[in-house]
Amino acid sequence: MQDSTCVTDCPKHDDRLHGISFAADGDPPVRGALHHVADSREALVLTHGAGSDHRAPMLVAIANAFARSGVTVLRCDLAFRHTRPSGPPSPSTAERDRRGLANAIEALRPYGTRRFVGGHSYGGRQASMLLAESTQAADALLLLSYPLHPPGRPLHARTAHFEHIVVPTLFVHGSRDPFGAPQDIEQARSLIRAPTMLITVPGAPHSLPAGDAALIDDIVAAFKRLVAEPLSSR
Prior knowledge:
eight-stranded mixed beta sheet, 8 strands, disordered N terminus, single chain, alpha/beta, about 230 residues, Rossmann fold
């Protein structure tokens, strides 16, 4: 990896946060904001949903919390957002979005011996598909409001790839999410061939409450418990 650093986004409230742009080998490039923890042994790539970008408040809140716990975090834009400043992706961009996530995970190699990936909604779906395609791309998965099916179409489940996921996976899901009910997530996560956990957020729709500090702390604590489980149980 060739590291070309330039400031793109640097809120002043957090001295761990640096705006960066990675120039990684291959295409597409990686762009986002890095929460760098000195001497971290673990690193997490977080990405956004179809209508957002790496500045989404929920991603910022979770990244700050993980950084406080000693994990370096890269909040990154998916590849489609590089060329489309707003609006959702087209179906033709999904493979390129996954390649961008793979490049982001590789870009974090200097920041941790264990690397994780996750995202909100569409971003989480692409992260899960990447780990189904490349089972050793990352060591664990964080799925925020996984879009289990299109709203109102529960028979069109997006779970065919779950049986190929072999890393610990944490789901965080609102009880009023139209993209899937928590009981449906409970069934779906049984398809994954590794330990999984589900945090249900009472009353939450597809968006999750970024201002709920207790929830953010619960997410970090649950994820750390999940990835700390002995290898023999996976």
